[in-house]
Structures are given as structure tokens and as C-alpha cells.
């Protein structure tokens, strides 16, 4: 392994100090965007690699979380575009495993993460959020879940602040409509 210069060591220390505290937040956002833990991990890894590569363009002491979210969102969009242009592919090993699990009639899993994730995905709120169109879901997640301001979201998504307000309003209304039954079942009044 090559010896690192003091500037490279300082870059690593600064990066760790500024960026790594936000790993959980960007993973949660990636998981909500992709709805798949493996894809979310890949997206976070891609985000961290890009952030480190372009760390010299980051202004130390500014909003590191917003900077990371913007990189993550751009990576997600680029990956989505790339995948949408490819024809649908099926991995034979995945199909054969599914076929064997159906044949054996034993579909119980002992993987705790899988059980927890399956329960999370059955949640009415998560499902309703996942069903929102991507533009609305992204803005609702960034504002209502992650707590970013309209200005920060507009900068991350590179759209006017009025568009953010509009998407947030429409996204919240779509979410409200989707969650009416959920609210009634839990005794919330519709005033």
C-alpha cells in the first residue's frame, strides 16, 4: 500500500468528520427511494464514492447532509435512466430458487432482516408513500421525513422553489387520500 501524503490524510479525516455522521440518513432515504435494501446499499456506496471523489468541491462547514442527498438523488436518477433503457433481464438462479421454494411449500425464512423488512413493507403508510409518483414521493420524503427546508430541497433537486411547494402540496394530498381508510381504522376523525 502506498504511503499517503499529509494532504490525503487530512482529506480523509475531513471527509469522515463531515460526511459519515449522515450515513444513516442517506441510507434511509435510499431505502425509501429504491424499496430494496440491496439497491439502497449500492446507492449509498455509489454516493459515498462520488462524494469522496468530489470532496474538494464541497465547502467545509456547509450543509453536508444536503450535499450528500443531492449526490444520492442524482445517482438514483442516473441509475434509473440506465436501467429503463435496458431490456428486462431475469437471472436464472433467482428463478430457479423461487421455483424450488414454491415446490417445497416451505416459504418460512429465519432471516431476521428479511422478516423485519417484509413487515415494514406491509405497513399501510410505507406502502402509500411508495405508491406516490417519484417526484412527489421524493419531495415529501425530503421535507416531511428528513426535515429539509424548501430552499434546500430546491437546491438538491435543481428545481424552482415554487415547484417544490407545488409537489409537496400535491404529494401530501395524494398521501392523505391513500391513507383515509388507514386513519378511519385507527379512529382518526375526518374534520
For this entry, give a set of tags.
single chain; 0% strand; mainly alpha; Arc Repressor Mutant, subunit A; Rna Polymerase Sigma Factor, Chain: A; 191 residues; 11 helices; 2 domains
Rounded Rg: 20 Å
Order of helices and strands: HHHHHHHHHHH
Contiguous uncertain segments of 5+ residues: 98-110, 113-122
CATH fold assignment of the largest domain: Rna Polymerase Sigma Factor, Chain: A
Describe this structure in words.
InterPro entries: RNA_pol_sigma-70-like, RNA_pol_sigma-70_dom, RNA_pol_sigma70_ECF_CS, RNA_pol_sigma70_r2, RNA_pol_sigma70_r4_t2, RNA_pol_sigma_r2, RNA_pol_sigma_r3/r4-like, WH-like_DNA-bd_sf. This is RNA polymerase sigma factor. Keywords: DNA-binding, Sigma factor, Transcription, Transcription regulation. The chain is mostly helical and 191 residues long. It is built from 11 helices and no strands. The radius of gyration is 20 Å and the shape is elongated. Mean pLDDT is 79; it is low at 98-110 and 113-122.
